[in-house]
């Protein structure tokens, strides 16, 4: 996301420095020393994405999934079209450019897959993905997704409440946090085998929530979008969606969920703690150190030419989560 910043101008996410470029720079500096400096002048390829969005990428067969459409989770907002949702992605295991995951993850095999729930629980378990489909009925949830890079989408997810999965494990009273882990398999995830592809992240990608946040009814595990199973680039076969937090909290391709008594480490906080906090609640009043969070570019179907900059809302507009933070300084706990 990284660009020259002119303070007098209105922000667009093309001017903002993005996570990938930032980390590639850090990595280059570490690896190459001063010789690497020439590479720092390379523009992020993300900026040109919009001119090539009509290009076709292979998409594996997506299964239609049975689901209900509860009225309270439908929306009158314009949905982000399927082709944007599936070609403009952050999934560094498959590359740091927005268009990389659609290309590099198309052959990512997600069957068989197991998901383990353990840690401070009475009944740890491991489920095959088939069991997951059988045990939990899917709902369509139309949620806004606000990336920390100041773009946003409106996505019709298919999923179920994370709380209903955690309840099956019977959390112990000592459990206060929930830690999530993405698959670690460098043979299948090229960014894990090569630090230049993977943006210098220490894999596996990890995330965390407080137990209260995890049990909130808005927090879901998604196994599909637009009526069908998740495309690999969106985090197949199962990913977290926490709509009131910046997108990086919504960890993809999860293999393990562990309940703990301590705040777990999280990938972006580990990389740049002064820029990415544990909470990462969407908040227009708390700027990223390198850009404003007051507004966002809503990705609909207009690309660069559309005037689609909109104000960002506290908790991404999901005010019902405010009680979770009534005793917390949201500026300190960013
Ligand atoms: N494992 C993993 N999960 C991840 C990421 C990632 O790089 N790796 N990127 C995050 C970020 S920054 C965002 S904005 C969302 C993007 O989800 P989408 O590509 O489905 O829109 O996924 C999040 N989950
Ligand atoms: Mo993001």
Automatic annotation (TrEMBL):
| Family note | Belongs to the MsrP family.
Mind telling me what this protein is named?
Protein-methionine-sulfoxide reductase catalytic subunit MsrP
Per UniProt, what is one Pfam family of this protein? Oxidored_molyb
Q: Which gene encodes it?
A: msrP
Q: Where does Mo-molybdopterin bind?
A: 89, 92-93, 147, 182, 234, 239, 250-252
The signal peptide here is none
Source domain of life is Bacteria
PANTHER family xrefs = PROTEIN-METHIONINE-SULFOXIDE REDUCTASE (PTHR43032), PROTEIN-METHIONINE-SULFOXIDE REDUCTASE CATALYTIC SUBUNIT MSRP (PTHR43032:SF3)
- What enzyme category does the UniProt record give? oxidoreductase
Q: Which reaction does it catalyse?
A: L-methionyl-[protein] + a quinone + H2O = L-methionyl-(R)-S-oxide-[protein] + a quinol; L-methionyl-[protein] + a quinone + H2O = L-methionyl-(S)-S-oxide-[protein] + a quinol
Quaternary structure (record): Heterodimer of a catalytic subunit (MsrP) and a heme-binding subunit (MsrQ).
Q: Which GO terms describe its molecular function?
A: metal ion binding; molybdopterin cofactor binding; oxidoreductase activity, acting on a sulfur group of donors, quinone or similar compound as acceptor
The residue ranges crossing the membrane are 32-51
Q: Which residues form the Oxidoreductase molybdopterin-binding domain?
A: 111-268
